[in-house]
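Predict both folds.
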Amino acid sequence: MPTPPVLHDLYAAAERIRPYILSTPLLESPHINEICGGRVLIKAEPLQRTGSFKFRGAFNTLSQLGDDAKDGGVVAYSSGNHAQGVAAAAEILGLPCVIVMPEDAPAIKIANTRSYGAEVVTYDRYSDIREEIGARISDERGAVLIKPYDDPRIIAGQGTVGLEIAQQMRDLDLIPDAVLVPCGGGGLISGVALAIHHAFSQAKIYSVEPEKYDDTRQSIDAGVRKQVDITTPSICDALLAPTPGELTFAVNKKLLTGGLVVSDGEAGEAMRQAFSRLKLVVEPGGAVALAAALSNKYDCAGKTVCVVCSGGNVDSKLYAEILSAG
């Protein structure tokens, strides 16, 4: 089993991916600050290439593959954002690419993945095992399997979000009291935690997950990896991992202060606020950290809080329904 990345790996990833990514802004809204009672800085990863942070880790990983990947290419399994990140990175690097996606993934994510030239293989998330499908394709085609979060190269790439946050906070002469990050398998938050803990050792770092999918929160509380039932529907399709990754949890159990949980309704309200006040399109899973601040799941009163909005790939029909529901 590989070992988790260290801070040096994050800086190396930042140099490797710098020509291909956007350094996304920290956004702020007086209205959101008033609701939360503190100063809330929002890291806008929906503005990233492919619409989410996932491109960072994907490109960092694929750019380090050897010549063996040129013939067999790469294969990945994902509900959509990792899929798009891997597909886009493969297109840039000229690698064949197969993506295994749940058949109920948002149509925009499937369409975008195909638009980068990837072959998409769908499966039933409730009866099929995506890891087995990915392994079979890897064996049959000689493709390199690109895991969505449990890979030190992926974690290091996602950790560049944290490096950017740290520099942007320094530029503003601010010290965060807390950083809230959406969490599925834990790749993003483990990378961000490595960067933030080094830059601001006193800052509290919280994972934020949808109701019924709080495997990271439960695992942190128990001190061991826990698994949740994945049959409960949720609009937060990007965050429905049943258990934390081994590598990601090794980092998170040491560096995270705890875990927070929000409802689909609270995620929807965060999407509405992001649209109304920031003019930012955020998908449900990408909005959960902002939802934790807005719903007082984390008390922001009198504090400086950084919130990561991790992605913006949401189907137009669902997005319209959520906006109109407000």
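Second protein follows, with its predicted structure tokens after the sequence.
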Amino acid sequence: MITIFRKIGSALYQVWFYILVAIPIILLFPILVLLSASEKWYPHFFWVARNLWANFILFGMGCIPRIKYAEKIVKGKSYMLVANHTSMLDVMMMLKVSPNPFVFVGKKELVKIPIFGFFYKRVCITVDRSDAKSRTAVYRRAQKRLQKGLSICIFPEGGVPDEAIILDDFKGGAFKMAIAHQIPIVPMVFFDNKQRLPFTLTKGKPGKSRVKVLQFFETKALDERVKISLCEEVRELILKELMMKE
């Protein structure tokens, strides 16, 4: 009986998450439409997303951020942000980690999510991983954003893996892009989001959500030939942190 009530409570907790996602968007809809209408206004959109939307969701879910930095993010500098992908909370947590405006690169399927998908399409770089032209277009769009002083965020697993997988294989796009644009790679580890809000409807609970920002990887002296080894090195570092936590 206790197990049944826990599952019901977790299911309601999951529903509560989507309610929290929608409330600020609905209340701020005219402002968000305006700020997402032009790329020059994106830093203001990012400020709202980071300081209002993400905080509203994380604290409303009882998922209290605990962030540790091995190296600080420098204001006004562009980076490639990468992390393990475990939960929808990863989006809000990434917003909390970086004070610098950045743009998500993510799969186009998220456009289908009601309300959220409308703005996702307007402000993020979407990619169809099965389409070579779409993948190529990502680099052009990312370059344009980097030239405006923004950072880029990619979850290199390419999606949320099965819950039994601690860390899936990394795809090389983020590392190829970082080398091409000579920007530092900022690896980070999300320790608790899988427990806070997994994709299993009958699981999830509030609590602290720890993030560890690891030492940055510089790319200025690198070329694309080391993309694979760099990708593997970053993955091994994140995996080591996750295994230590286990």
